[in-house]
Design a protein that fits this description.
17 strands; 313 residues; 2 domains; alpha/beta; globular; seven-stranded parallel β-sheet; Rossmann fold; 26% strand
């Protein structure tokens, strides 16, 4: 019997869109049931959101004060306990899932399947290797539970609002470790769309020239209602904070529109945008690798082209 447990990612009482993408991957397995597990100190509002995701059979909640903050060391024993009777445990391949998944796999004594891009069968998956330059087919042992992280950029979000799954509270009798504790969370606050779920993203690279010059990227992104990203070169140069980095060692995204401004297009950056719908590149170097993947390319000075685009808008 194929039953999948999807671990919900949430923050500040709201469900992350990555959860609905993980549900899409779960549906591709064609299981008999897809249950979503919400671990929080007050899971009611989050569970209500999860219950509306199309394809979800049940929403299970684990309310504990220790779950107020997403600490993988604290959540993993609860997930491993809740996973009894399930053939698969899925989590989004975000910072949250990459931290939690390996711990759950270790507790269950199974290897993890990482960054699932496509489902070929109940225990057969495709995932990227070598910075996305190759795709491998992985077969998991059907005799063991499958613990997998889902590459969210490769999956559409399951529809929300078309379902009304029942919500059930779980009583998980499990001892939690005390060697890890929450101190504080430091995160950037922005009124712009979330980088990982935005439909439009404008990214700047080393070609922007400085932290001060990056204002032209922010201004243009705000004009078209886009999230703002950056290449690793821009992050390393101190133009922007590292949570804005797009690429192999940053965020893997799949917006409908991606604008790469002053970005040369190193393979590590291209790995992060390979699933984007339309890629627009602006660079003064006509030989920049970014033009090899761009649907639309503009060769020229970004400080002249961006104001021209704003005037056209």
């Amino acid at each position: 019997m194929t039953k999948i447990l999807v671990i919900a990612e949430h923050l500040d009482g709201k469900l992350n869109p990555s959860t609905a993408r993980a549900v899409s991957a779960a549906a591709a397995v064609k299981p008999e049931a897809i249950d979503v597990l919400v671990l929080a100190d007050n899971a009611d509002a989050i569970a209500a959101e999860a219950a509306k995701i199309e394809g979800v059979t049940r929403v299970l909640t684990a309310n504990r004060t220790e779950n107020a903050h997403a600490l993988a060391a604290v959540l993993a024993p609860q997930v491993a306990k809740a996973a009894a009777g399930y053939s698969h445990v899925f989590a989004p391949s975000t910072t949250f899932g990459k931290d939690l998944g390996p711990r759950v796999a270790a507790l269950l004594g199974v290897p993890q399947v990482s960054d699932v891009m496509t489902v070929e069968g109940s225990h057969t998956f495709k995932r990227p290797v070598y910075a996305g330059n190759a795709i491998v087919t992985v077969e998991a042992d059907p005799a063991l539970p499958v613990v997998a992280t889902i590459r969210t950029a490769s999956w559409p979000a399951a529809a929300i609002g078309a379902n009304s799954a029942p919500v059930e509270a779980l009583g998980l009798d499990v001892a939690l470790p005390s060697h890890t504790r929450f101190v504080e969370l430091k995160q950037g606050k922005s009124d712009r769309p979330d980088l990982q779920s935005a439909s439009k993203v404008v990214s700047g690279g080393r070609g922007v020239g400085s932290k001060e010059n990056f204002e032209i990227i922010y201004k243009f992104a705000d004009r078209i209602g886009a999230a703002v990203g950056a290449s690793r070169a821009a992050v390393d140069a101190g133009y922007v904070p590292n949570e804005m980095q797009v690429g192999q060692t940053g965020k893997i995204i799949a917006p409908e529109l991606y604008m790469a401004i002053g970005i040369s297009g190193a393979i590590q950056h291209l790995t992060g945008i390979k699933d984007a719908g339309t890629i627009v590149a602006i660079n003064k170097d006509a030989e920049a690798p970014i033009f090899e993947v761009a649907d639309i390319g503009l060769v020229g000075d970004l400080f002249k082209i961006i104001p021209e685009l704003e005037s056209a808008l």
